[in-house]
Amino acid sequence: MPKKILIVGAGFFGAVCARELTDAGFECLVIERRDHIGGNCYTVFNPEAACHCHVYGPHIFHTDKEEVWNYICGFADFNHFVNRPKVFYRGNLYSFPINLFTLYQLFGVRTPGEGQAYLEKVRWPIQDPKNLEEWCLSQIGKEVYEIFIEGYTRKQWNRHPKELPVGIIKRLPIRLTFDDNYYGHQYQGIPIGGYTALFEKILKGIAVEPGVDFLQDREYWMKNRLLIIYTGALDEFFSYNLGPLEYRTLRFETELLPVADFQGNAVINFTEDSVPFTRIVEHKHFDLSFQEPETVITREYPNNWVPGDPPYYPVNTAESQERLEKYQILAGTEVPRVIFGGRLGAYRYFDMDQVIEAALKTSKIIIQANT
Ligand code: UDP
Predict the structure, then answer these.
(1) Which residue, among 243, 230, 213, 215, has the nearest Cα to 306 in the 3D structure?
(2) How would you label 164-183 residue by residue, b for 16+ Cβ within 10 Å and e otherwise?
(3) How many CA atoms lie within 13 A of 113 on its CB side?
(4) Residue 153 Cβ < 6 Å to ligand 1
(5) Pairwise CA distance, residues 89 & 297, whole Å
(6) Is the CB–ligand 1 distance for residue 109 below 6 Å?
(7) Which of 152, 298, 350 has most ligand 1 atoms within 8 Å of CB, for mutation?
(8) Residue 137, phi then psi, degrees to nearest 5
(9) Which terminus, N or C, of the chain has the lesser number of Cβ atoms within 10 Å?
(10) pLDDT of 263-302, one tens digit each?
């Protein structure tokens, strides 16, 4: 008789665990509060524009982890999309992430040597940067920081960059070459046919019940299951008993436009404070699909999160870290049969590949402990 595992949430963490554990002989049931699988990676095909739209924000798969890449390629073919976002600031477009061409556009810098000399001149001599702003000033100086980082970061996080950890900005490369690939990773692309089809393949043959909210019927679900893998928010699981963790939420404004190509690129960031959205995404560029005369764009507005809103980004302030640790103790002592994972369950600003890696690891541990 196979052992029963309940998986709450059909995003990457839940779906990969479900696949691995099912293949190892466990009986898995996946329940999902939303009416669809795929978590925030969910895509919907738009026939007018002939492309898959990223409903909860752009998801570009990128990784250096060979094991993760080989694993995910077992469920989809990936196209050769490479993320090369542009920045729009006070009427001008700039190459991004910050690279030699950006410095050429701004200051006429043409070679790596000139770029190096420019940065050495403008960098602030901060030995041990303690926050996001200090780190930027120590790397790129005030002017470049103000154009590309300050306004965008304030909009995104609704906090002064002085109050934010350095880790957030270290996601962004600064290069003294003309390479404008946003990610320095070896593997990158978008699943051909969309993320939803990829999730359907991962979950093939596994019982999935969308539209089912674990927290509405917690006692029922806690019974009869050897183990529960919970990928919803940790604080919500505990009814915010210790107070909510901090998140940022997003509002998406999506339009179908009667033009073949609206902005010529998948992503354009609007870095100035006075523009209320952070970026415009044009979905057909992700699919490299240009046969239709119409296009779908989405403006992305970051917002303050209150319980009930979808939590997109954990805000890793010292306060929320402290609260997180208390929730983790609660999880370990009160519900030892529940494993928390994914961006929300772990409360980590994970990329997709990190979530998959963590899910593979968790599944292995469960399999080893139960066989
Ligand atoms: N960022 C910025 N300007 C930009 C893009 C990003 O200052 O044009 C900063 C901002 O603080 C953001 C962080 O870099 O939160 C990470 O950006 P990334 O694009 O990795 O965020 P995501 O795609 O996860 O929203």
Answers:
(1) 243
(2) bbbebbeeeebbbeeebebb
(3) 0
(4) yes
(5) 19
(6) no
(7) 152
(8) -60, -35
(9) N
(10) 999 999 999 999 999 999 999 999 999 999 999 999 999 9
Cα–Cα distance measured from residue 245 to residue 322, given in angstroms and rounded to the nearest whole number: 10
pLDDT per residue as tens digits for the range 20-32 = 999 999 999 999 9
Ligand 1 within 6 A of CB of 278: no
Question: What token pair was written down for 235?
Answer: 């604080």
- Closest-lying ligand 1 atom to the alpha carbon of residue 132: 11
122-130 contact pairs (CB < 8 A, 24+): 129/166, 130/166
Encoded tokens for 272: 């100035």
pLDDT tens for 120-155 read 999 999 999 999 999 999 999 999 999 999 999 999
From its phi and psi, is residue 175 left (phi > 0), alpha (psi between -120 and 50) or beta? beta
Ligand 1 mean position to 298 CA, how many Å? Answer: 17
Q: Catalytic residue numbers?
A: 171, 175, 248, 279, 300, 349, 351
| CB of 60 closer than 8 Å to CB of 83 | yes
**How far, in Å, from the CA of 144 to the mean position of ligand 1?**
15
